[in-house]
Design a protein that fits this description.
By secondary structure, this protein is mainly beta. Helices cover 0% and strands 47% of the residues. It has no helices and ten strands. The protein has a six-stranded mixed sheet with strand order 2-10-9-4-5-6, with no helix packed on it. A four-stranded antiparallel sheet has the order 1-3-8-7, with no helix packed on it. The chain is globular and about 40 Å long. The chain starts with a strand and ends with a strand.
């Protein structure tokens, strides 16, 4: 069974940066593409970024392209999301999951709040 635990969120001013981490249990982590997703209050969860199993390919939502960077360390079973130039519209709970996501793998997420 895979468990995903997100961390690194917090309160930051607009223009600031945060680095999110997603620690995964399970020996098959490195076999799968992984993604970051977010859900803002009153909105549906949306795709943010994804990375292939090897880390060689990355994809981003248009809204974060050029500001966010996804990476992974398969030796540590961890996926990261470096977020720069944060905007108030980036405020949301951020989740990681496989890409495409698996329902039973959703964790608690980590709250990111950007003040303007």
């Amino acid at each position: 069974q895979v468990q995903l635990v997100e961390s690194g969120g917090g309160l930051v001013q607009a223009g600031g940066s945060l680095r999110l981490s997603c620690a995964a249990s399970g020996r098959t982590f490195s076999s799968y593409a992984m993604g970051w997703f977010r859900q803002a209050p009153g909105k549906e969860r949306e795709f943010v970024a994804s990375i292939s199993w090897s880390g060689g390919s990355t994809y981003y939502a248009d809204s974060v392209k050029g500001r966010f960077t996804i990476s992974r360390d398969n030796a540590k079973n961890t996926v990261y999301l470096q977020m720069n130039s944060l905007k108030s519209e980036d405020t949301a709970v951020y989740y990681c999951n496989r890409r495409p996501p698996v329902g039973e793998y959703w964790g608690q997420g980590t709250q990111v709040t950007v003040s303007s």
